[in-house]
Amino acid sequence: MLIFVVITGRLAQDEAAFCEMLGSREVPLMSKKGDIIIGGAFSLHSQISKPINLREFRFAQTMIFAIEEINNRSSLLPNVSVGYKIFDSCASTLPTTRVGMGLINGEERTFEKNCSGQSSVHAVVGTSESSTTIVMLQTLGIFQIPVVNTYIYPASMELRILNRRQYPSFFRTIPSDYFQSRALAKLVKHFGWTWVGAVRSDNDYGNNGMATFIEAASQEGICVEYSEAISRTGSREHVKRVVRVIRRGTASVLVAFLAYDEMDVLLEEALFQNLTELQWVGSESWITSAHLAKARYSGILSGSLGFAIRKAKIPGLEGFLLQVNPKQEPRSNLLREFWETSFGCSFQSDMPGTKLCTGSENLQDTNNAFTDVSELRISNNVYKAVYAVAYALHNMLKCEQNDGKDIHFTVQSGEKVFFDENGDPAAVYDLVNWQRNAAKDIVFTTVGIYDASQPNGKQLSMNGKNITWRPLSVCSQNCPPGFRKATIKGKPICCFSCLPCAAGEISNTKCSQCPLEYWSNVNHSKCVPKVIEFLSYKETMGAILAAFSLCGASLTLIILCIFLWFRHTPLVKASNSELSFLLLFSLTLCFLCSLTFIGRPTEWSCMLRHTAFGIAFALCISCILAKTITVVMAFKAKRPAKTIPQCSAPLQRTSVLGCTLIQVLICVIWLTFAPPFPHKNTVYANEKIILECDLGSPIAFWVVLGYIGLLASLCFVLAFLSRKLPDNFNEAKFITFSMLIFSAVWLTFIPAYVSSPGKFTVAVEIFAILASSFGLLFCIFAPKCYILLLKPERNTKNHMMGRKQTKGHVWD
């Protein structure tokens, strides 16, 4: 079954008539006999440009060069000669159909069955248009003749999703545009462009390529401001409207997924409307176009970036091309036409105004698309395609593969070639940048590589060369540190406003809370360790409290020394000297225990501070309680002689020791089951860590404090009842007043302690300790020191008894 494509209308007739000028489409324009024949189909002519296409002619000669190179190699297809038949597809479907028929009808079956009954192998290299490729596949696919495509323009969606079961013989050495579209998105992301415009060809190549790009760009966080389509056959008014849209847009990067012809139309209008200051990002169809680089559009396109088919150097190709001459094949109309086009001459002497071609002209004197080997991209694909066919045939001859198509090889340039399950090669592109050389001419500089086979994040790599590009294309400027992005209703995600982050949060793109022991810096750009705070000796408050503590302890010791000096006087004896000395000692401990509350909390200091405080104050109040009881019992006794045993020193010591041991027992139980421990408090101040001592058991703390309060209450009651005892020196009055101050201080302490934040909790507790200690010291001992030091005449028994001696009083 054969498939014919019939084209009706004037265009098909004109096209067919022009292509017939060079002979029948079923007859190859260039051929060579061989054991194996490889067909070639190139668009040497087209309905748009009637002169020979020198670029396509270079592709055809590259195919011939590769075949000759293979024939000269002994390691590849030994003892087998490779021939070729090259046809002109005329860049159209009808001639391509006839070319396919010519390949089938002219098949020479010199490659006989060799391996397990397999038939001869034929392959076709070339075809550069989507439509012609599909026609070639439909024609040759019936006979399972492989078609190796080297360049598809424009890349049809139908070719991108070819069914391998329907076309199992289709291969290509150019990557699918699916990978190119995704590569363009990676490129835009790499340069930080998040706000771009897009323009495309209004055909399968542009529409499907742009759809893939927009999808990939969205995944990369890139927004497309507008997407416009252009057709080379569309009206100029439409092109004008597209350029106006581009001018009004705020994106400074334009992704142009355009075929060469549409690019030429767009640039013409862009030049007319003075469309400048754009960063162009292009597809491979135009990014290495020498015509655009040399034309008047170069000023607009300077700095353009885009992906191109990898450039390669083919050793020996340039010399081979320069040797092409019509004298090689005098009957070849194609070679004669090539020569006339290259040198602007004619082999016909009857052409007035045209110089006569001699055939002796030198191609080295020309600079055209045929002799230019500086950008061997498609030519390299043709070269690899011929070698792919040769290696497949070589494998079949050696019976190493069932079908010869699973091939891996390395060409002389060092490039590795293989095909995946879809018949596609590895998607590797050169990243090309349009730069100006010293002569101000545009040169295509390779600045990087995109390899789709690499892991994500490593696919795009730069080679370190300087790049000419415009650095900014965003809808909204990045938020400064300390701010987060907030989407604007009705706008793309790339357009946003900036809102400040809350305290303790940092931002790159969004606000995030710092870890528990960290806080945001002033700019909210990073998390820094929180300031650790505790009541320290180095700070003013800590130093002042420590100074008062030491002063209180020193003053207490001074009073102790005074009492020791006057210990034999009536006043000291009347004050119960042993209890007074013990009371002064306990007050010294009370002053000093406040020092344990200052400094960095540790495990030992936390256990010491509260227990030392509780025991010291219990001892202090116990001494005062014993003194109060002694005074009351001494003055209330009817028989003084009987009071002596009741108020003896052992009884006083026992009462003090017993009351103190109860507090010691409470503290031991506290430390055994739930001891205080260092704790990092982050509740009171978010930006700080308060180092404090956790009570372990709050109940135990309040029991300790409550026991001290109980002892103080007993002292107050007894002292209050004894305040009117007959004595010029009635110590019960001073004890009553001291207990009032003590109780007032600690009753005030409770709400202040509960409500004070951070280190001020510790400061309140120290203040209560010092205030109550100073209150006891001054209320009880200041009047005595006054008499001892300033009024020694009052330090007599008669004076203290109101001038009447009371018998039986026990003073000591």
Question: Which characteristics define this entry?
Answer:
alpha/beta; disordered N terminus; GPCR_3_C; 4 domains; Rossmann fold; 812 residues; GPCR_3_9-Cys_sf; six-stranded mixed β-sheet; 44% helix; disordered C terminus; eight-stranded mixed β-sheet; 15% strand
Explain this structure to me?
- Helix content is 44%, strand content 15%.
- It has an eight-stranded mixed sheet, sandwiched between helices. A six-stranded mixed sheet has the order 1-3-2-4-5-6, with helices on both faces. The protein has a three-stranded mixed sheet with strand order 25-27-26.
- It has 812 residues and is of the alpha/beta class.
- The chain folds into four domains: 21-175 and 315-348 and 362-414, 3-Layer(aba) Sandwich (Rossmann fold); 177-310 and 428-462, Response regulator (Rossmann fold), CATH 3.40.50.2300; 483-529, no CATH class; 540-634 and 660-792, Rhopdopsin 7-helix transmembrane proteins (Up-down Bundle).
- A hairpin with a 5-residue loop joins strand 14 and strand 15 (416-418).
- InterPro entries: ANF_lig-bd_rcpt (IPR001828), GPCR_3 (IPR000337), GPCR_3_9-Cys_dom (IPR011500), GPCR_3_9-Cys_sf (IPR038550), GPCR_3_C (IPR017978), GPCR_3_Ca_sens_rcpt-rel (IPR000068), GPCR_3_CS (IPR017979), GPCR_3_vmron_rcpt_2 (IPR004073).
- It comes from Cyprinodon variegatus (Sheepshead minnow).
- The chain crosses the membrane at residues 541-566, 578-599, 611-635, 656-673, 699-722, 734-754, 766-790.
- This is Olfactory receptor C family, h1.
